[in-house]
Amino acid sequence: MAAQTIRDIAAALGAEAFGNADLVVGRPSEPAEARAGDLALAMSPAYADVLTTSAARAAIVWQGCDWQAMGLEAAIAVPRARLAMAQLTQALDQGPAFHGIHPTAIIDKTAHIGDGVHIGPFACIGADSRIGHGSWIDSHVTVGSGVAVGDTAILHAGVRIGRNVTLGRGVILQANAAVGYDGFSYATAEASNEERAFRTAGRTALAPPADAMRHRIHSLGSVIIGDDVEIGANAAVDAGTIRPTRIGRGTKIDNLVQIGHNVTIGEDCVFSAQSAIAGSANIGDRCVFGGKSGCKDNITIGSDVVLGGAAIALEDVPAGRFLMGYPGKPMPIFRAQEKALRRLSVPKDG
Questions:
Q1: What integer pLDDT is reported at residue 349 of this predicted model?
Q2: What separation in angstroms does the CA of 142 have from each of 39, 125, 155?
Q3: Which CATH number fits domain 106-183+216-333: 3.40.50.1100, 3.30.300.20, 2.160.10.10, 3.40.50.280?
Q4: Could you tell me the pTM of the whole model?
Q5: Given a cut of 80, is residue 197 above it in pLDDT?
Q6: Residue range 78-129, pLDDT digits in tens
Q7: Measuring CA to CA, which residue among 153, 277, 171, 289 is closest to residue 230?
Q8: What residues act catalytically?
Q9: Which CATH number applies to 4-92?
Q10: What element of type H or E holds 193?
Q11: What is the DSSP track for 21-50?
């Protein structure tokens, strides 16, 4: 980062500066690697020992930190470490620079390109699509026909956008994300084995049906993504069958997440890596899905629900619940069952 005073950095973070507020620092750094001119990021007491032996003269520290005892000349105290990290990194990241439209980009003559748009090498922009002002389309991005991309969106290299998808303002899609392609949906001429299994609850042996051919159900719907949504690398959001798949404003989706067709997701939700939402599920606002968690199709999960890592919801979940395990259970029940299992005697080998 450009050199700044401790006073200016504290003001940008809305935090309090201590010591020599006129001290100038350069790059942010982990405490163990900090040099004299760096700003050490030590926002937890866990960094106390390494900060004491660090070469840093200034640091961002936790509230109540005895920064002078650690040999620092200046410090910025923050009440919430991760929020401070968000503010600091946002201030330091200058974002992609504007380069204009590369000559190898293929842009349909009916597409509308807003002002200040960058379109990188070998990108393809489909017919009747609209790219909002100030958007960044990186190399090898494909934007299908009839797509609307909001202002200041960022589509990183290799992103694929299917037909008629709508992306809101400030949407960020990381490399190789795929949005708006066909969902995993097939039908058989007679009851399939999975239908028979559920219908009989596994009490009847399964056998080959007379006609096992899977007939493809095409996804004629689209995807509508709200403002400020972020979707991680190699994540996939399937198009709806008839109605659109919807993702609400401010929702954040990690790498390698699968969102099935017809799913509706509310605002400010978080989906961690390898979580999966089956088709036609309805997710409320501010829900959090831990890594490898998910839910079955056609269920409703209320707002403010948290699924811990690898938890799977198999039925409707009321608002405000914290689920763990498979099948997902409210945390108090899950803990009671785990304790009961640990109390069981374990037979010795042999």
A1: 66
A2: 40, 6, 10
A3: 2.160.10.10
A4: 0.91
A5: yes
A6: 999 999 999 988 888 877 878 899 999 999 999 999 999 999 999 999 999 9
A7: 171
A8: 261
A9: 3.40.1390.10
A10: helix 193-200
A11: TT-EE-SEE-GGG--TTSEEEE-SGGGHHH
